[in-house]
Amino acid sequence: MASTKPPRECASSGCSTPATKRCAGCRNLWYCSEPCQKKHWPSHIFECQLGKPISPVYYLLRACREDALPMEPSTRKLYGFDRAGRDVSGETQRELLALYADILITKNIAPKVVKTWSDGRLLADGITGVYEALRPADRGALYAWFQKNQCIINPSTVPAPLSGGALEDAHAWNSNRIRNAWVLTGGSPADDLGTIVRRIRAAPPHVRACHSLYKQIVGKMCPNPDMDDWLTFAFVVSPCLRGREGELCVLYDRLIRKCSFDEFCAAYQASKMFLLFAVYDIPDAAIIRCDRYRDVMAGSPYHFKSVWWLKQYVDILHCSASGTRPKLHQSAVVDYGYANCRNEGERKLLDDTYKRLFTDTEAEPMYLHRACMEGRLFQYVGEHVKLKPWTDKFKRLLKNPYPPVDA
Fold it and tell me: Distance between CA atoms of 227 and 230, rounded to whole angstroms?
């Protein structure tokens, strides 16, 4: 008597039809029909294409379904989360996620369609078309938010120059940031803006730096990677532009509400900022206790390991829309191979390699620095990033003045 196998279940959620078609990619899952397979693909792709490139739009859809901000670097950059990440509160990123969830899930726009918009630099236009097809009464608050924030969503969209009332509002907002920070540092509320600016400019460099950070924190903003504050106050230790720098802003905000400005400046100048956090027992300060933060702040504001100059350089590359290469500190030029570059193509090759090292791998900057100082830069980078077919070129590029430890 022939044995009968129980019918296979369709892998698509909610489907009870027996499955007869096998996934040709992984050969592990079964489906009842092509429509069910297409429906399940945005979830299955992460198993089926394991180890292979996956379009950022699928990471975006997964983030929408899980109601969690995307962490994958290309997704964050391509769909505006890096730009929105400058907001300390994280509210801008949450609004952006809600907008994409409305497009991809509620409005049921196919991921491939959104990818087409993005590839053609028409993301803002595509989103506009979805909402403009609705009655004005049905477009909702998300569309109103989107209209005010298109420059976050589409990197090619440049906001119109401010004029009239909008320009006055921007000046007023910046002036309020400066005034509120000035009062928090112990300045007089009666001082006019001109007096405040003159006194800050006349202060010693380390005091001016602290004023700069206070202005950012009071204004509920994070420093940008191209600002000195990014390095000197250790925002550079955050995983490459994944929105984590806002956590450090929150901790600084808690600290400056407890300590005096003189204490803050003294700790910064003496490279003992992490001790000031301990004195005031700031809660949830795990990032302050990590080795990376202590390593940066133990030298700030005067001395930094070259790996932190390299990390800041890579962070700037990630958020630069113009494609212009920032200037790299000379110590990192020598230590990390840029001095060996013979042309622009080789510099671009190193740029891309270090971007992958800091974003796509679990490489630890301090381990990278140690390998660099021990003459093992080529070996360390090769353990984390694929160097083929340029292996011989990388052997030349990743040489530095430091002899191998076993030499």
Answer: 6
